[in-house]
Amino acid sequence: MPPPRSLPRTLAARGALTIEKRPPFANFANAFSSRKAFFASRKMERPKKKVSESSVEMTQVVMPIDTNYLGNLAGGRLMHWMDLAAAIAASRHANAIAVTASVDSLEFKQPIKLGEVVIIKASVNRAFNTSMEVGVKVFSENMLTGRRVACNKAYFTFVAIDEKGERVVVPEIVPETPDEIRRYEKAADRRRQRLAEKASVAESK
Ligand SMILES: CC(C)(COP(=O)(O)OP(=O)(O)OC[C@H]1O[C@@H](n2cnc3c(N)ncnc32)[C@H](O)[C@@H]1OP(=O)(O)O)[C@@H](O)C(=O)NCCC(=O)NCCS
C-alpha cells in the first residue's frame, strides 16, 4: 500500500492546489532584509560566539611550486594562504560567506625557505555589524631543528553576505583570554583608523 499523502499533497495531486517550490530560507530572505531585522522582530538577542569556536590553524609545507627564483616562499602565495585561513575563521564565525573587504599593511620580516613548514593562525578579533576583523599570524618551522620563527602578521576585514550578495549581521564575539580581550579592545581603534583612511581616499578622488 502506498504511504498516506498529506492533505496539501492530495489536493495538489487533484489539481486543486499549487505547491510553490521555493529555495531554502526563501521566506526568511523575503521577509527580512537582514538578520538584524529578523532578530529585532522576534525580540531576540544577537547570538554570541567565542573566539575559539572559529579560530583556524593552517599548516603548509613550502614546495618548489610555492617558491620564487631565490628558493623562498613567494609573497603572493603566502598572502593567498593567509586570506584563506582568515576567510575560514570569518565564515565559521558568521556562518555565512565572508568576502575580503580590506587588508592592513603586510610586512614580510623573514624569508621562508623551501621545505619549511608554514603555520598560519587566524582568529576573529572583533565582530562589528556586518564586518569582522580577523588577525592573522604566520610562523615558519624547520622540521629538522624544530625552530619556530614569527614571520609576519596582518589584519583582514571581512564582510558577511547572504546568497543574494546582501550584507548580513554577524554574531557578536566573546573574547575570553587576556590576549583575546586585548585584541578585541584594539580592534575598535584600528577600525576607526581604516574607515577614516577609506573616507579620505574617497574624498581625494
Ligand atoms: C566589502 C563590500 C561588501 C563592502 O560593501 P560596501 O557597500 O562598501 O559596504 P559598506 O560601506 O556599507 O560597509 C559594510 C561594512 O564593511 C565595512 N567596510 C567597508 N569597507 C571597508 C574597508 N575598506 N575596510 C574595513 N571595513 C570596511 C564597513 O565598516 C561596514 O562594516 P559594519 O557593517 O560592520 O559597520 C564590497 O565593497 C565588496 O563586495 N567588495 C568586494 C569583495 C571581494 O570581492 N573581495 C575579494 C577581493 S578579490
Structure, explained:
The protein is α+β, with helices and mostly antiparallel strands and 205 residues long. It contains five helices and seven strands, in the order H-H-H-E-E-H-E-E-E-E-E-H. The strands form two sheets. A five-stranded antiparallel sheet has the order 2-4-5-6-3. Bound molecules: coenzyme A. The site of coenzyme A (COA) has 14 residues, from strand 3, strand 6 and helix 5.
Summarize the structure.
The protein is α+β, with helices and mostly antiparallel strands and 205 residues long. Helix content is 33%, strand content 27%. The protein has a single domain (47-204), classed as Hotdog Thioesterase (Thiol Ester Dehydrase, Chain A, Roll).
**Overall residue-averaged pLDDT value:** 87
The number of E-state strands comes to 7
What is the terminal separation in angstroms? 73 Å
Strand order, main sheet: write it out: 2-4-5-6-3
Taking Cα atoms only, what radius of gyration do you get, to the nearest Å?
A: 23 Å
As residue ranges, the low-confidence spans are 20-31
List keywords for this structure.
205 residues; alpha+beta; five-stranded antiparallel beta sheet; two-stranded parallel sheet; 33% helix; globular; binds coenzyme A
